[in-house]
C-alpha cells in the first residue's frame, strides 16, 4: 500500500543515517525524547538505534497510556468489574495491568464478566444486546483514542441507551511533556512528537516547546524511515541553530488537526483539575472527565468510585523509566522478577511500554554496550 | 480519489470481497505488505496506544460507517463521522474502530 511501503526502504534509511552522522558534533551528547510508546516500539523493533552515532541518545517518554496509569485507577476499575450486574469491557492490554489486588484477567478467572473489546463501539453493541445488564467501558488513551470514546457516547445518547457508561481515564499529551521539561532530572535537546495524537490535535499545541523551552519538536510517523527522518530534522535544526515545530508526518497530520474530532471531544469531555500520573505525580489539567451533558454515562458517578491512591510496589522503578532518568535495563527487577509474562510494573505490560520493547527487541544492544542484563 | 460518495445498497456493485468469507490460501489484498510490524485490523499492536493507527481504504459507505479494508485484506466496519466527507477509495487512519484522519493526497499523487 502506498504511504507505508516506501517508508520501509532500508537503503534510504542508511542514507538518512549517514546524513545524521555529518550533522553530529562528535564532542557533544544529544538527548532526544520520543514521546510516544509507538515510536519506542518502532525504534527497537527495526534497530533504528543501531543506525545512529553513539552521541545520540534516545530517551523514552511517557506516551504509553497503560504505563502512566496509576495503580489506584486500576483498582477502581476492578471494583466496578466485580459488581455482579456489570459487564466490564476494556482493551486487551488493559486486562493484564496489575492493580494492588490483581488484574482484570484474574478477576475474570474468578467469575467476573470482563470482556475484551477492540473499540468502544463494540462495548456499546454489547449494551444494546444485553439491556438487562450494566455495561461499563474502561476508557484509556491519549487524544488518539479519546475521539472514539466521545463518538461512542454521542451515539449512546442519541440512541437513548441507558445501561451503558464509561470509566474515563483519558489523558492529554501536552501537560506531562511540560512537566518533563520542568523536571530538573532531565536535560533534553529535542522531541519526536506523537504522530497519531497530532492527527487529532494538530501541531500547534507543541509550539510551547520551542517558544518557552527552546527545544525543537518534530511530529513523526511510525514507519522506520519516518523515525529516522525526524531525527535528521531535529539534528538539522540543532546544527543550524533553529528551534521550531516541524511536521514530518504531513501525509496524515494536518497542521490544525482534525477539527471535527476536536469539536466532538469538546462536547463530551472537559479537563480534570488534576490527575495522577505514574512516575510524574499529579499534573494539572492533564486528563479528561465526562462533561455534565453526558453525566448519565459517567461510571465514576454511577458507581461511586473510591479514588484511593495506591503506591507502586517498592521494587518497581517504572516512574524513573517513564521520566527517562533510568533506562529500562537499569531497573532492579527488569528481566528477572518483571517480565512480559509476569509484569510487576505497567511498562512491561503493553507492547509499547519501554521495558517490554527493550525486553523483546533491545537485548542485542545491551550485549553490545556490555550492560548488565 | 472519487468525486462522489456512494451509499452502500444492493443496487450498486459492491467490492468483490465485501461480505464474503476469505479463502485463507488466496493472496491477501496487498501482498507486498505482509511485513509483520505493520499494524492491520487483525494485528493489534497496542490499541490504547497511537501506534495502532491503521491505514485502511474505503470500500463501501453505509451511513455513519464505512466498510474498510486494510493492507492485508482484512475488512471491518469503521465509524467515519469524524472525517466526513468520505469517498470510496479514500485512505483513512483508524483507531479503535473510528476513523480519526485522512491521508492527505497531494496534487498529482494517486492514493493507490
Main sheet: strands, sense, barrel of chain A: 5 strands, parallel
Number of strands of chain B: 5
Round the Cα radius of gyration of chain A to an integer and report it: 21 Å
Name the biggest interface: A-B, 54 and 38 residues
**For the residues shown, what is the average pLDDT of chain A?**
88
Q: What is the gyration radius of chain B calculated from CA atoms?
A: 14 Å
How many individual helices of chain A?
A: 17
Order of helices and strands of chain B: EEEEE
- What does the main sheet of chain B amount to? 5 strands, antiparallel
Overall pLDDT level of chain B: 65
Strand order of the largest sheet of chain B: 3-2-1-4-5
Q: Count the helices of chain B. How many?
A: 0
The level of helicity of chain B is under 10%
Give the overall shape of chain A, derived from the CA principal axes.
globular
Head-to-tail CA distance between termini of chain A = 39 Å
Beta-strand content of chain A: 15-25%
Poorly predicted ranges of chain A (pLDDT <50, ≥5 residues)?
367-373
Strand content of chain B: 25-35%
Strand order of the main beta sheet of chain A, please? 2-1-7-8-9
Q: Quick one: how many beta strands of chain A?
A: 13
Helix/strand order of chain A: HEHHEHHEHEHEHEHEHHEHEHEEEEHHHH
Amino acid at each position: 500500500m502506498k504511504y507505508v511501503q516506501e517508508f520501509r526502504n532500508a537503503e534510504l534509511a542508511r542514507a538518512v543515517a549517514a546524513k545524521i552522522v555529518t550533522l553530529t558534533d562528535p564532542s557533544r551528547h544529544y538527548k532526544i525524547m520520543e514521546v510516544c510508546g509507538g515510536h519506542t516500539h518502532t525504534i527497537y523493533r527495526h534497530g533504528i538505534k543501531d543506525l545512529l552515532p553513539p552521541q545520540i541518545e534516545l530517551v523514552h517518554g511517557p506516551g504509553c497510556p497503560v504505563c502512566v496509569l496509576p495503580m489506584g485507577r486500576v483498582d477502581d476499575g476492578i471494583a466496578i468489574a466485580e459488581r455482579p450486574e456489570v459487564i466490564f469491557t476494556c482493551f486487551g492490554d488493559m486486562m493484564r495491568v496489575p492493580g494492588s489486588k490483581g488484574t482484570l484477567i484474574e478477576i475474570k478467572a474468578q467469575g467476573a464478566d470482563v470482556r475484551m473489546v477492540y473499540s468502544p463501539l463494540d462495548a456499546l453493541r454489547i449494551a444494546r444486546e444485553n439491556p438487562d445488564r450494566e455495561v461499563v467501558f474502561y476508557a484509556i488513551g491519549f487524544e488518539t483514542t479519546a475521539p472514539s470514546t466521545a463518538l461512542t457516547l454521542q451515539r449512546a445518547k442519541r440512541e437513548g441507551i441507558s445501561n451503558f457508561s464509561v470509566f474515563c481515564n483519558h489523558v492529554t499529551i501536552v501537560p506531562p511533556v511540560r512537566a518533563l521539561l520542568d523536571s530538573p532530572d532531565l536535560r533534553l535537546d529535542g522531541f519526536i512528537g506523537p504522530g497519531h495524537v497530532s492527527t487529532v490535535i494538530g501541531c500547534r499545541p507543541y509550539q510551547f516547546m520551542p517558544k518557552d523551552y527552546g527545544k525543537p519538536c518534530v511530529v513523526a510517523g511510525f514507519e522506520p524511515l519516518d523515525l529516522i527522518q525526524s531525527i535528521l530534522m531535529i539534528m538539522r535544526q540543532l546544527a543550524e541553530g533553529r528551534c521550531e515545530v516541524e511536521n514530518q508526518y504531513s501525509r496524515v497530520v494536518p497542521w490544525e488537526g482534525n477539527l471535527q474530532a476536536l469539536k466532538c471531544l469538546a462536547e463530551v469531555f472537559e479537563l480534570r483539575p488534576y490527575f495522577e500520573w505514574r512516575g510524574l505525580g499529579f499534573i494539572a489539567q492533564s486528563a479528561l472527565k465526562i462533561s455534565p451533558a453526558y453525566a448519565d454515562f459517567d461510571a465514576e458517578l454511577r458507581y461511586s468510585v473510591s479514588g484511593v491512591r495506591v503506591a507502586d510496589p517498592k521494587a518497581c522503578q517504572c516512574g524513573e523509566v517513564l521520566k527517562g532518568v533510568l533506562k529500562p535495563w537499569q531497573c532492579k527487577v527488569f528481566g528477572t522478577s518483571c517480565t512480559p509474562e509476569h509484569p510487576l510494573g505497567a511498562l512491561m505490560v503493553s507492547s509499547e511500554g519501554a521495558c517490554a520493547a527493550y525486553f523483546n527487541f533491545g537485548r542485542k544492544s545491551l550485549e553490545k554496550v556490555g550492560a548488565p542484563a | 480519489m472519487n468525486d462522489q460518495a456512494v451509499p452502500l445498497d444492493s443496487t450498486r456493485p459492491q467490492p468483490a470481497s465485501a461480505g464474503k468469507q476469505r479463502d485463507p490460501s488466496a493472496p491477501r489484498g496487498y501482498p507486498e505488505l505482509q511485513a509483520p510490524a505493520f499494524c492491520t485490523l487483525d494485528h493489534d499492536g497496542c490499541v490504547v496506544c497511537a501506534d495502532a493507527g491503521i491505514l485502511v481504504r474505503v470500500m463501501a459507505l453505509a451511513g455513519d460507517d464505512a466498510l474498510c479494508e486494510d493492507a492485508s485484506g482484512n475488512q471491518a466496519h469503521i465509524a467515519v463521522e469524524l472525517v466526513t466527507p468520505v469517498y470510496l477509495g479514500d485512505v483513512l487512519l483508524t483507531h479503535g474502530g473510528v476513523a480519526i484522519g485522512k491521508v492527505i493526497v497531494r496534487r498529482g499523487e494517486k492514493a493507490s
